[in-house]
Design a protein that fits this description.
Strand content: under 5%
Radius of gyration: 19 Å
Number of helices: 5
Distance between the termini: 37 Å
Shape: elongated
Order of helices and strands: HHHHH
Helix content: 55-70%
Length: 115
């Protein structure tokens, strides 16, 4: 269960797969129409959220997107694609900050005071 909350390193393949999942989910919901089929829209949302969490790591922005998809007209918008774009941009910025941060100073055992 902790694997879904861990933030994986973003690669081009992960980003490409995440956008593919989001576009397919939004496309399927658009093709079903505003009324959708009985629980099919919700199943698509659950699958999309799980797959995106596995590919990009869980992000709190997935929750409001999932909730917004419960409303009949909102599910006609490309919400998963938009959410994926925002999460990818945030994750890339996080990775840039971590990569540019200087390494922590190395301390020898002699510098550590045992209490």
């Amino acid at each position: 269960m902790t694997g879904i909350f861990r933030t994986p390193f973003l690669t081009r393949v992960r980003i490409w797969l995440a956008f593919s999942v989001a576009i397919v989910a939004d496309g399927l919901q658009l093709s079903l129409g505003p009324s959708g089929w009985l629980f099919v829209d919700q199943a698509i949302d659950v699958v999309a959220m799980c797959l995106l969490s596995l590919l990009l790591g869980f992000h709190p922005l997935f929750i409001p997107t999932f909730i917004a998809e419960l409303f009949p007209i909102v599910d006609m918008l490309p919400t998963w694609t938009g959410c994926t774009a925002i999460v990818v941009a945030l994750r890339r910025r996080e990775q840039r900050v971590v990569a540019s941060a200087p390494p922590p100073p190395v301390t020898s055992r002699d510098d550590v005071i045992d209490i």
